[in-house]
Amino acid sequence: MHHELWFTALLNKYLAAPANAVFNLVGFHTEDPSKPWSNYIAMELLVIALLMAVSLAVRASLSVDRPGKLQLVFENIYSFIATQAHDIVGHGYKPRLAWFTMVFIFVLTSNLLGIVPTFESPTMYYFVPAGLAIATFFYYNGQGVKEQGVLGHLKHFAGPMWWLAWFMFPLEIISHCIRPVSLTIRLFANMLAGEQVTLGFMALLPFVAPVVFMGLHVFVSFVQAFIFTMLNMVYVGEAVAHEDH
To answer: CA of 24: how far to CAs of 39, 88, 170, in Å?
Structure first.
């Protein structure tokens, strides 16, 4: 059982009542009403708060002639995601660019939060990757329906040969249902393994391991955020693709 982080304890001390009210509203009951906040929820809220604060700071200092360093960082991220989306999704990438960028920044920030002392990566708890994976599932299917209608989207499940539709359709349904599971396991397992390996080596080599494995954690964080976002693009690209493309 994970220990309670100081930020989680702070939320449980001052915001237990609002959390219990929300949980009761959706029919969820915590084991200990005095501690409704879990580490992964607290860390996820912290990531959202950080991103909102940073976005407000960037917006307040936007400049065309003299952009600040933070503005340049986000412009480069946006340009990188736009380039990847153009190559993977194709002609319909622009309306979905905000989603891809949001997914990348949120996953990356969540992953990197683990290198900050006294904090944890919310993505090392399977609830958070599962939520992101389910959101991805509904998003790309919703975009497919929006782009081509229900019947047009369902044609993708039937395959290119009409006489094999009876065989391909159930296989495609199973394949699409597995996607959220694979997205969840990939992100969750890598982040949890990285966290455990770092903690293990820090206990053995407290003066050497932190620098080496923090660097490794940063590398894994970027790779996993990149992979999760690229898979989002692949799924959306498949859903919105037309036969003549």
So the answer is: 19, 43, 38
Q: Is residue 79 part of a domain?
A: no
Token duo for residue 44: 């996820």
Domain assignment present for 120: yes
- Secondary structure, 3-state, 119-173: CCCHHHCCHHHHHHHHHHHHHHHHHHHHHHHHHHHHHHHHCCCHHHHHHHHHHHH
User: Residue 90: which region, alpha, beta or left (left: phi > 0; alpha: psi -120 to 50)?
Assistant: left
Q: Which domain holds residue 224?
A: 91-240
Rounded-to-integer distance, Cα 104 and Cα 222, Å: 9
- Taking residue 50's Cβ as centre, other Cβ atoms within 10 Å add up to 12
Distance CA 236, CA 179 (A): 13
Q: In this structure, are residues 143 and 239 in contact, taking their beta carbons and an 8 Å threshold?
A: yes
In order along its 245 residues, the chain shows pLDDT tens digits of 468 899 999 999 999 999 999 888 888 878 888 899 999 999 999 999 999 999 999 888 888 888 888 899 999 999 999 999 999 998 889 999 999 999 999 999 999 998 888 899 999 999 999 999 999 999 999 999 999 888 888 887 877 776 677 778 888 899 999 999 999 999 999 999 877 777 676 666 666 656 677 788 889 999 999 999 999 999 999 999 875 44
SS3 state of residue 73: helix
Give the number of other CB atoms < 10 A from CB of residue 90. 14
Domain count of the fold of the chain: 1
Q: Indicate whether 50 belongs to any domain.
A: no
Q: Is position 38 within any domain?
A: no
Q: Which residues contact 55 (CB under 8 A, 6 or more apart)?
A: none
